[in-house]
Description:
With 403 residues, this protein is mainly beta. Helices cover 5% and strands 35% of the residues. It is built from three helices and 27 strands. Strand 19 and strand 20 form a beta hairpin.
Amino acid sequence: MKHYSRTILTVLLATTTATIGAQKPRAGVDMPIMKNKITVSNVLNEGRITWFASEEPVTDAATGLSTVKWQNTENRHVEGRDGRWAKSVIMTSRTSTGSFERDATFPYVKATSPLVPCGWELIEEDGETVLHCYMKMPADVVTNFWLASDETAIVDSETGVQYRARRSNPDNWGQYFRFRAMKDSIVDLRIYFPLLPPETSSVYIYGVPNWRLNGGSTISINRPNMYHFTISPYDAPPEFHKPRLVREARNYDKDNSGSWAEYTDAHLIRPLKHNTMALWRTADATYIAVAREQNWTREYFGEGPNDLLIDNNGKQYRLKEVQDYPNGNLFWVRGNSGDWIAFVKVYEPLAPGVRTINYIVPEGEPFKAWGANWSGTVESNLDVEQLRRNQKFFEYHPRVVVE
Length: 403
């Protein structure tokens, strides 16, 4: 048996999903050695599938083969661009790249199911990144199918670097095609990309319409084995630029904006998605930085005081302070419209072994002000190690103004 060097990067699907049972080695099927297994949030070691509606198969009386015309291809506009149709492809149990038939991948799916399950894995194999696209055959022959084209790419969501697809198997690049395999077997269609750098933490995938991979949502890539060697259990506390107090609060009254404290020269960062967070973990405290967009030259904010972290075991961690700003009182920040600033909240230290947290900000007490809003938020199942990797986004970034 030939063993292929491969590492699973992630397993994920779009839209309505159902969980696949854990796969086991099967007789007569190549099972490459799996090493440095990598997981994605809420997937762990299981795959997931998407269900597509299918037409009823039509059976040819002469050959006895059943055929389904695939109705879910979203790239119909491409047909008018080049008008080419590829030759038929027969998917066999053995090919130059391994096994196409994986009969036990969806063990609970009945042959009479009116829906077609499709799943995918992103895997490192022999110096390339390979997107394996799986589908349970609804008939012996599927026509009107589309796999990949010049639009197919993986994009690093942090750096913007594009990793363009190199080729596909079957080799029907930018074409509609038909393929044949045993009804109810699992076919494995593959798209090959350059190898992703080891520091890649999340990506977008584009140009794979029949698996709903058209960007829009990031796909996390977590390498826990690697982090055991590269990240210590604790961080040094964050050192943020200290804001300057312009005016202290005077007889603070939430309904009197003139009584609120005012600050300027906040810790500036590069633009980020609102509520992007980073975490620093120490033996004495947990530090969480949150990104805020400044929409006005002088804008009010409110942080705390009843914020909570709840770990994956249900333990709660209370907010102890908001660094350099009031904890629970509204305050002003003066800067430039278009600034992005960061606040640091200090919580009780996380217990050892905590992997995920829920970030809870209760709604603030109503107050009187123009556009008054102190809404709450809940962010669930946040990966602690991913939040630690976000620290780089909160480095001080001086304001650059061109007039």
